[in-house]
Amino acid sequence: xxxxxxxxxxxxxxxxxxxxxxxxxxxxxxxxxxxxxxxxxxxxxxxxxxxxxxxxxxxxxxxxxxxxxxxxxxxxxxxxxxxxxxxxxxxxxxxxxxxxxxxxxxxxxxxxxxxxxxxxxxxxxxxxxxxxxxxxxxxxxxxxxxxxxxxxxxxxxxxxxxxxxxxxxxxxxxxxxxxxxxxxxxxxxxxxxxxxxxxxxxxxxxxxxxxxxxxxxxxxxxxxxxxxxxxxxxxxxxxxxxxxxxxxxxxxxxxxxxxxxxxxxxxxxxxxxxxxxxxxxxxxxxxxxxxxxxxxxxxxxxxxxxxxxxxxxxxxxxxxxxxxxxxxxxxxxxxxxxxxxxxxxxxxxxxxxxxxxxxxxxxxxxxxxxxxxxxxxxxxxxxxxxxxxxxxxxxxxxxxxxxxxxxxxxxxxxxxxxxxxxxxxxxxxxxxxxxxxxxxxxxxxxxxxxxxxxxxxxxxxxxxxxxxxxxxxxxxxxxxxxxxxxxxxxxxxxxxxxxxxxxxxxxxxxxxxxxxxxxxxxxxxxxxxxxxxxxxxxxxxxxxxxxxxxxxxxxxxxxxxxxxxxxxxxxxxxxxxxxxxxxxxxxxxxxxxxxxxxxxxxxxxxxxxxxxxxxxxxxxxxxxxxxxxxxxxxxxxxxxxxxxxxxxxxxxxxxxxxxxxxxxxxxxxxxxxxxxxxxxxxxxxxxxxxx
Length: 691
What we know:
This protein is α/β, with parallel strands linked by helices and about 700 residues long. Helices cover about 35% and strands about 20% of the residues. Among the domains are: about 50-150, CATH 2.40.50.140; about 250-440, P-loop containing nucleotide triphosphate hydrolases (Rossmann fold, 3-Layer(aba) Sandwich), CATH 3.40.50.300; about 460-590, 3-Layer(aba) Sandwich (Rossmann fold), CATH 3.40.50.300. The chain contains 21 helices and 23 strands. Strands 13-12-14-11-15-16-10-17 form an eight-stranded mixed β-sheet, with helices on both faces. A seven-stranded mixed β-sheet has the order 6-7-4-3-2-5-8. It has a six-stranded parallel β-sheet with strand order 18-23-22-19-21-20, sandwiched between helices. Helix 6 (about 210-240) crosses helix 20, helix 6 packs across helix 21 and helix 17 packs antiparallel against helix 18. The longest helix is centred in the first third of the chain and has 32 residues, at about 210-240.
């Protein structure tokens, strides 16, 4: 029979019922090609199943049994549907399994007594029973050898409301039967490793080995497409040209001479990279990675002075008002002796001498030129226009959405761009999200920084911790106490800053205790932070509003209550608020009963202070999904790829994309025409227009 083109609409096919078309569209499945690129989340070996468990298990099991009993009960607002599942073989020695679904009435309509059921989930112990709560399930009514649902390695695709996994599997099987697979778009250069039947093998493999071979071939192709888009974006940005901004270097020489410490070799190296970029006629588009306390702010300031000396404005955008105000105060302290004007622009305030004139007062005669501007997201909006932008620095770039960053850069014309992060990013994530940027990495910490000791403790040690806090504050040091919530919650059993604040005021008297959190108005928040920076407040009770950038060298203790509720990178950032002076510092992670991944996370912080090592642990524990976040928007899908498992394939793909573009920068040769079409298609989706 004749095969259909991959772009054939599903709505035109008689085997796609009308009532399934909207659910398919909600999953982005509109054509035959879309169905074939909807890769399985996993495969279940339904030729054999796991044994029914007699105790809790730390991994998910796939079980096949018969429904012996169902029950529906109410406990207050809770509605519970319960199933007793027994081994289909009828072995009386095999324990039964209880499956439960809470507040999901549709499950009751889908399962009935006597049905054969496949369930997938993690068994837990509940009141002496082995229970699966909210397992994935599938009713089996065709156990013949030819079934696509049973007696084989069975794919499980991500389904949706109105589209059960069983129905979606049938649609994918139909698509494989009727689609011209040779016409499915491939990007890898001809001759690349690609099994002829890869599309069939990745969905309905004869063996797990066949499936993995097909998956890797498809991943290599998908990753090559991602890297091709990023490399093309990088080439197009550089091809647009820019302005040479060499500066003179004299202002920086004067500022560096006034510093009470020496720059690290890594700082000097990175400053050189950025300076050369800015002096070149091509537009700079660079990512600066550095661990907490590595000295990124001085690197950025040196670049901003180079822009100023070249007659251009420089702007720094910070994610929070607290951080923007801190940068403003630090920059003004350093730049006033040089006569360099600085202004602050946030949603709450605009500062600088002269009323509406946003220039700060400078000692002596101010130098001519537009001011260095520090701001928050307020720089994105009307009324905060930049006069003559030559450099945009985006601090803690992961706190901004992709489109927010693009909006600032686009509004500013065509400045050099430096994005910074103190959250070290694993190499594969950097290659995926920031492959269009040149990358500089700051290693090490500036000389004179104190050692930071990290310790995991439980609440039984709290009296000793209180005594330690008292001794530190009595010696003139300061401390942070951080909580996961602002206020107590009925939904979450976790401590809150506002509820614990009064307790700490009593425990730590006569030391002055302050509080800061995200729900406070900007004026109160800044008053509290100013008092803490000035040493008037000894203990600051806070939420993660202090996570990034807050720099108080006299703070030597960080106590994080219920530390297991925080992310690993978040805890590393919080720890970075101490050890910024020369004194030894202590980070105390308070958590009762930590186990499993939570314990591994906290032990990693005890073991190392290397943010790049911590980032790799975080990637392994959480997977790439959370780390990609909204930053992945605008990139093609990772498809069947996994940035942990397939890291080497991403590296190969990056090298291949660079090689192809170096051979043919415009992708204009006949054999590269399909690659040009692919890149143009991604640009049409907005992928290449995000700055």
